[in-house]
């Protein structure tokens, strides 16, 4: 079980920087090219306001990260199965958070940015189902913010990648926690029957 605690701690330590990177990436999406004008005028893509990276992949992910890290430092042996059940619940929260981040980032990417074009402020790529991602020659339709397509695509792809890594980490802990929570009592019973 000590190995399981150490494994959980290493997963928590890996999860922490990923969560912080999600928060940073989402904050950068709110300020295209570092400008505050567009957030003040509500000129951001609508799905950005769902805060997939800030909420799901970031703040919500801090819970399992902290639980996994403190689990690794736990020296209490009074009920190791119960402790592992707690880590399983934290892993489920992490799976929900990373899934939310992935879905919101994907929807934002498919929708494309809101930008100023020759037709005014609009979503020029919203009806393309994401095909614009493979056609960089049409990105220049967005006149303002400058390079908004590249900005959004880069940050949203980063969020998608981070969400996948977070999901994998939480899934690993979910599996480890379930195995240890279920199998540990069986091991105790077997040891007790052998000693008896």
Written description of the protein model:
The longest helix has 48 residues. The protein contains 5 helices and 2 strands; from the N terminus they run H-H-H-H-E-E-H. By secondary structure, the chain is mainly α. The protein is elongated and about 65 Å long. The protein has a two-stranded antiparallel sheet with strand order 1-2. The C terminus is likely disordered. Helix content is 68%, strand content 3%. It has one domain. A hairpin with a 2-residue loop joins strand 1 and strand 2. Its main location: membrane.
How would you summarize what this structure contains?
The chain is mostly helical and 196 residues long. It has helices at residues 2-30, 37-40, 52-72, 80-111, 148-195, and strands spanning 115-117, 120-122.
Key descriptive features of the protein:
2 strands; disordered C terminus; two-stranded antiparallel ribbon; 196 residues; transmembrane; elongated; 3% strand
**Treating each run of at least 4 consecutive H or I residues as one helix, how many helices?**
5
Number of strands: 2
Strand order within the widest beta sheet? 1-2
Number of domains: 1
Oligomer classification: single chain
- Uncertain stretches: 186-196
Helical percentage:
55-70%
Gross morphology? elongated
Query: What percent strand?
Result: under 5%
Transmembrane segments: 12-31, 47-71, 83-110, 153-174
Protein name: Transmembrane 4 L six family member 1
Family: Belongs to the L6 tetraspanin family.
Keywords: Membrane, Transmembrane, Transmembrane helix
């Amino acid at each position: 079980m000590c190995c399981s605690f150490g494994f959980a701690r290493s997963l928590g330590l890996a999860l922490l920087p990923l969560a912080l990177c999600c928060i940073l990436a989402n904050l950068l999406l709110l300020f295209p090219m570092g400008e505050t004008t567009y957030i003040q005028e509500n000129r951001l893509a609508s799905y950005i306001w769902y805060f997939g990276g800030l909420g799901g992949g970031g703040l919500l992910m801090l819970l399992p990260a902290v639980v996994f890290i403190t689990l690794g430092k736990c020296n209490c042996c009074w009920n190791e199965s119960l402790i592992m059940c707690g880590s399983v619940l934290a892993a489920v929260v992490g799976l929900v958070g990373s899934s939310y981040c992935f879905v919101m980032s994907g929807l934002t990417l498919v929708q494309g940015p809101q930008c100023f074009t020759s037709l005014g402020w609009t979503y020029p790529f919203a009806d393309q189902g994401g095909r614009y991602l493979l056609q960089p020659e049409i990105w220049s339709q967005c006149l303002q913010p400058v390079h908004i397509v590249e900005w959004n695509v880069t940050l949203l792809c980063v969020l998608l990648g981070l969400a996948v890594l977070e999901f994998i980490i939480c899934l690993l802990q979910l599996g480890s926690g379930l195995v240890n929570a279920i199998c540990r009592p069986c091991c105790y019973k077997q040891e007790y029957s052998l000693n008896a």
